[in-house]
């Protein structure tokens, strides 16, 4: 069977968000204006993004035994993500506790809870279970790092194209990088991992070289409204961003990676996949929230067809 699917190994959280005019000072209580409770977690967001992009998508992750479980599972399921590889473990579902003020400034405490139970045996079993149906593996760093590193190695051995979004940035064993086909850090993650402050295309290129020197085949540094820089041993290419009017940039990176992964799995060439990732990232900034802001395939098609990408080769 020709693989067209995406396997996502990562975090699932309930995003509990309070909105108030200003954030409370330490020890202070303020009255809020609004409150939302939605599916979140970088893994789950990328899975929703890939599924909305049209890829058969399996989420590999853990939820607990509490009311938040039903909320996150129905969120994943409603967007078409396959739930066969989601485990229910003892304890509680992971939570991201978010506060947002009127200017959009936020602070977040993520409590992994059930996400900490995801282990290498579960990952191996899911790679076996999904088998040839998936061609791309999406990874991030909100689950135990050794599980992500194992998934990269096992996924590469199974012939999957391994895409790592190294967020939140943390140091990985040097041996992990050679199993990664594509790494997709934003500027701050690239800077944290490589030690190169990423402030423009030249510095992004130097940060990209750090990943390539460690065995990553393709470094794809996302640069927000400045687009993305794609660097392989063969070439460096800057892709300018799609012009949009952002209202909330949350989850742009997850939209990007999920849509990019779905396009790779559908066997689009890599530049077309980058284009689709960037269009999804741009569209995600035009809507508030994380998972609710992830665009579907038709919206991505429309943005691409109305503003053809003019990539500047360097
Ligand atoms: P993250 O959310 O991880 O910080 P970025 O902000 O770099 O990731 O966004 C990922 C991609 O989404 C970018 O490469 C770009 O193509 C698109 N994007 C993000 N912000 C904007 C924006 N303000 N305008 C247009 N496109 C954007």
Structure in words:
Helix 1 (42-52) packs across helix 7 (252-265), helix 5 (187-194) packs across helix 6 and helix 7 runs antiparallel to helix 8 (270-284). The relative contact order is 0.15. The protein has one domain (5-12, 41-93, 114-307): Ribokinase (UDP-N-acetylmuramoyl-L-alanine:D-glutamate ligase), CATH 3.40.1190.20. It has helices at 42-52, 67-78, 120-130, 145-157, 187-194, 201-213, 252-265, 270-284, 297-306, and strands at 5-9, 13-19, 34-40, 57-63, 86-88, 94-100, 106-111, 134-139, 161-164, 182-183, 218-222, 228-232, 236-239, 312-313. The strands form 2 sheets. Strands 5-4-1-8-9-10-11-12-13-14 form a 10-stranded mixed sheet, with helices on both faces. Strands 3-2-6-7 form a 4-stranded mixed sheet. Helix content is 34%, strand content 22%. Helix 2 links the parallel strand 4 and strand 5 (86-88). The protein has 314 residues and is an alpha/beta fold. The structure holds adenosine-5'-diphosphate. Adenosine-5'-diphosphate binds next to helix 7 and helix 8. The site of adenosine-5'-diphosphate has 19 residues, from helix 7 and helix 8.
């Amino acid at each position: 069977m020709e693989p067209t699917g995406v396997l996502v190994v990562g975090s699932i959280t309930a995003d509990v968000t309070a909105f108030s005019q200003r954030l409370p000072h330490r020890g202070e209580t303020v009255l809020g204006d609004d409150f939302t409770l939605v599916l979140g977690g970088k893994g789950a967001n990328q899975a929703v993004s890939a599924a909305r992009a049209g890829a058969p998508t399996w989420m590999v992750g853990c939820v607990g035994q509490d009311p938040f479980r039903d909320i996150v599972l129905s969120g994943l399921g409603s967007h078409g993500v396959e739930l066969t590889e989601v485990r229910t473990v003892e304890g509680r579902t992971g939570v991201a506790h978010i506060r947002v003020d009127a200017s959009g400034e936020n602070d977040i405490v993520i409590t992994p809870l059930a996400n900490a139970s995801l282990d290498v045996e579960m990952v191996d079993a899911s790679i076996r279970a999904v088998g040839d149906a998936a061609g791309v593996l999406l990874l991030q760093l909100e689950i135990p790092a050794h599980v992500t590193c194992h998934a990269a190695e096992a996924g590469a051995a199974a012939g999957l194209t391994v895409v790592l979004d190294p967020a939140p940035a943390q140091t990985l064993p040097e041996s992990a990088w050679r199993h990664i086909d594509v790494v997709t850090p934003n500027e701050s993650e690239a800077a944290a991992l490589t030690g190169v402050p990423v402030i423009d295309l030249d510095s992004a290129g130097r940060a990209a070289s750090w990943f390539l020197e460690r065995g990553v085949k393709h470094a794809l540094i996302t640069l927000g409204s400045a687009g993305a820089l794609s660097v392989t041993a063969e070439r460096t290419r800057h892709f300018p961003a799609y012009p949009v009017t952002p209202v909330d940039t949350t989850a742009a990176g997850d939209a990007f990676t999920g849509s990019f992964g779905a396009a790779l799995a559908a066997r689009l060439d890599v530049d077309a996949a980058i284009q689709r990732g960037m269009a999804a990232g741009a569209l995600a900034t035009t809507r508030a929230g994380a998972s609710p802001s992830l665009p579907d395939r038709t919206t991505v098609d429309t943005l691409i067809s109305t503003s053809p990408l003019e990539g500047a080769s360097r």
